[in-house]
Amino acid sequence: GQNIDQPTEMTATEGAIVQINCTYQTSGFNGLFWYQQHAGEAPTFLSYNVLDGLEEKGRFSSFLSRSKGYSYLLLKELQMKDSASYLCAVIDSNYQLIWGAGTKLIIKP
Amino acid sequence: NAGVMQNPRHLVRRRGQEARLRCSPMKGHSHVYWYRQLPEEGLKFMVYLQKENIIDESGMPKERFSAEFPKEGPSILRIQQVVRGDSAAYFCASSPTGEVYNEQFFGPGTRLTVL
User: Fold this and answer.
1) Nearest-CA neighbor of A33 among A19, A18, A24, A45?
2) Contacts of A87 (CB under 8 A, 6+ apart)
3) Choosing among B5, B46, B101, which should be mutated to test the A contact, i.e. which has the most A CBs within 10 A?
4) For the range B61-67, what are the long-range contacts, defined as Cβ-Cβ under 8 Å and sequence gap of 24 or more?
5) Which band of pLDDT confidence, cut at 50, 70 and 90, is reported for residue B101?
6) Segment A31-46, tens digit of pLDDT
7) Engineered SS bond to A22: which of A57, A88, A96, B30, CB 3.0-4.6 Å?
8) What's the mean pLDDT when you consider all of chain B?
9) Is A75:A102 a contact under the CB 8 Å cutoff?
10) What angle do CA A48, A52, A57 make, to 5 degrees?
11) Which residues does A1 contact at the CB level (< 8 Å), separation at least 6?
């Protein structure tokens, strides 16, 4: 079956760095997305990885290892507004998006 | 407002009634996706439509649920004879092409509560 695993919840301190992991077991792989979703709001796009390695975009970076079925989202210089859920989604061999349940990130002052 | 629009934002229905959820995609986007999200859970794909066509409805329950995207007007997700288990947030997303690699732009969602 298709499965995407993320930690349910994480807590970090303002100004610190946090890494949110995502492991996947899907029928094929054609790319991986990270989305941010604030409580009660729509998901918004953060990153897309299809090749192995690290993609950096400001304070946010996303890493992919296809051989390990693993990705992480790295958030630096955390701000209170980064408190949100972070959703990992994988494109499978049928070109369908399979979504993880999301990781709720709580930032403390 | 060039974003994806959904209405109503909140909808309350009694068991057995019909729920109609509307989605207007971003300007220039002709591909629409509907998702359901239960509390504390991830997004579940329901249906993918292009203007006047249902491309993929593999995630939509076979009974009571239907979707359309007419040539003119918004996309509609219709749930007939609602039950308590239909209570969820329903998100619509749009993209400029049907390529799954494209970023999807999400609307604010409709929160359906079935009493």
Assistant:
1) A45
2) A33, A34, A35, A36, A37, A43, A99, A100, A102, B42, B43
3) B101
4) B67/B34
5) confident
6) 999 999 998 888 999 9
7) A88
8) 92
9) no
10) 45
11) A25
